[in-house]
Amino acid sequence: MTQKVLWQKRRRLMRFMATAASFKHAIAGRLMRGMRHIPVNRAAGEDAYPIALDALTRGEVVGIFPEAGVSQSWTVRKLKTGAVRLAAASGAPVIPIGVRGGHRLITKGHGFNPFKSFGVRVHIEIGEPIWVHADAQPEPPSERP
User: Fold this and answer.
1) Which domain holds residue 72?
2) Burial class, 17, CB count within 10 angstroms (exposed 0-12 / middle 13-18 / buried 19+)
């Protein structure tokens, strides 16, 4: 959905950082590679950093889920600092995007059923850009209350 809005408004596409395992899936992997998304190895996530930084410095849009995954309990997990570090290094802003209802489309551990997903509403809210100073030192992740 954010891809559609971004394309309609700016004629730009977003490259998402996604788990490397999804690139190995027979169907999803082909789509992920075709859309030029960025694979992230969870055991060595820092390997994806220079790829994302290069994309941002070339003016591309990179989508990052700072939780580094989806919680099965649908609560916000501990946030990582990669998005802020990339923004500081590249000069690109962080644009917060909230997605509510996506868990009703694809629930982790329960697969995808197109018949049950048809007509499910997903709410997307796009915030104002946040510019991060090049000297910013992101705080280490902390547990949310």
Assistant:
1) 2-126
2) buried
Domain for residue 139, yes or no? no
Q: What is the distance, to the nearest Å, from the Cα of residue 145 to the centroid of all Cα atoms in its chain? A: 23
- As for how many domains the chain has, the answer is 1
Q: Per-residue b/e over 21-53, b at no fewer than 16 CB within 10 Å?
A: eebeeeeeeeebeeeebbbbeeeeeeebbeebb
- 63-96 per-position pLDDT tens digit: 988 877 766 666 777 778 888 999 999 999 999 8
Instruction: Compare 109 and 47 and report the one with higher pLDDT.
Output: 47
